[in-house]
Design a protein that fits this description.
about 20% strand; disordered C terminus; alpha/beta; two-stranded antiparallel ribbon; about 300 residues
Amino acid sequence: MSEELRISRRPTLRRPVLIAAFRGWNDGGQGASLAGGYLAKTWEARRFADIDPEGFFDFQATRPHVSLVDGVTRRIDWPENAFYHAPIEGLDRDAVLLLGVEPNVRWRAFTGLIVGLAKELEVELLITLGSLLADVPHTRPAPVTGAASSPELIEELGLEASRYEGPTGVVGALHDLCRREELPSASLWAAVPHYVSLTPSPRAAQALCDRLGKLLGGNVDTEELQRAAEAYSEQVSEAVSSDEETATYVAELEQRADELTSESELPSGDALAAELTRFLRERDAEDENPAGGSTEH
């Protein structure tokens, strides 16, 4: 195993599943990273390994942070990707949690370390959590879609095959390596309202944790996230109400969401990704035409 993977101890695990969440491109509204952190807290996960950031980050692009300890000592916090382990409440199996930041460089080496450790720990399934921006209202449960690496796993987990084509993040690279190394893998994606993309979304985190629990055959206690989601909805609604155009737009999204009467009618992960692509294209067009001039598509 590479020296870039620093293992402090090797836990004994029962039928482990590896759950990964990265801040960055795959983390719209911080839904995925918030969910991962919540799982670590709820399950009282214990850290046992991390990846040395030196070879995977451009520190001018992803800068370390300086913080004060006891108001006096200055400490540098480097970009971190750390592994934790914990028993999954209500199930006879353990979780390995990978919480961190999408690296800037050497993705193939980075994902190789993850898959190598997963195989060493005899991980049975790797699941990534993601969140993306879409045309969904903040007042309704966040839609969650999922995909898996094989037809057999898709049927077993009740997910779907992804047909998305376009730019990808480290999550895509990780699943590609899992496929080549024959490590079963799945991904869960929650939709986050694009009009509040800079606000952490506990609603998306709750939806991811709830869907993860069902996928694993158990339940995750998300009561704390639910309370946070209710406060989030109230705060965003108050801000939205001050702008008539935005309020009208949100009302249209609510009507559309209410027309979805069953989970099978939720938009697919590919559709949500297409929504994000369209939104970014329109935003770029608006930036190029600040006076509101017409734009050809």
